[in-house]
Design goal:
The termini are far apart. A four-stranded antiparallel sheet has the order 1-2-3-4. The chain has one domain (about 10-80). It is of the alpha+beta class. The chain is globular, with a radius of gyration of 13 Å. The chain contains two helices and four strands, in the order βααβββ. Bound molecules: zinc ion. Zinc ion binds near residues 45, 72 and 76.
Length: about 100
C-alpha cells in the first residue's frame, strides 16, 4: 500500500459542494488567503472565489465539519483540515 491518502477514509458529508462566491462572507478570510498566497499551487488555484467548496466530517463523532475541500475549476482539490477550537467552521445548507 504505497498510496498516500490525504483524506481520512470515514468522511461524512456535512455541507454540499457550492460556489465560494455565492457563500459570500461565510467562508473565513484565512481560508481564502491560504490559497491566494500559496506559491506551490497552480495560478488558477489561487483564485478561491472561482472554486466550489464542500464540508465534511472526518468521523461520526464530529458535531461540526472539520474538513473543507476547495474544488478548483481545473479539477484539483484543496483540502483544509480543522482541529481543536478557536477557528470558525462555516456551515451552509443549499435548497
Ligand atoms: Zn486550479
Amino acid at each position: 500500500m504505497g498510496l498516500h491518502l490525504d483524506l481520512p477514509p470515514t468522511q461524512i458529508p456535512a455541507c454540499p459542494r457550492y460556489p465560494v462566491a455565492k457563500l459570500g462572507g461565510l467562508i473565513p478570510a484565512k481560508f481564502i488567503e491560504a490559497l491566494e498566497q500559496n506559491q506551490k499551487i497552480a495560478s488558477c488555484c489561487r483564485h478561491p472565489e472561482n472554486h466550489e467548496i464542500e464540508a465534511l466530517y472526518s468521523s461520526p463523532a464530529e458535531t461540526t465539519p472539520d474538513i473543507y475541500i476547495f474544488h478548483c475549476t481545473c479539477g484539483r482539490k484543496h483540502p483544509r483540515f480543522m482541529c481543536g477550537g478557536g477557528d470558525v467552521r462555516p456551515f451552509w445548507e443549499v435548497r
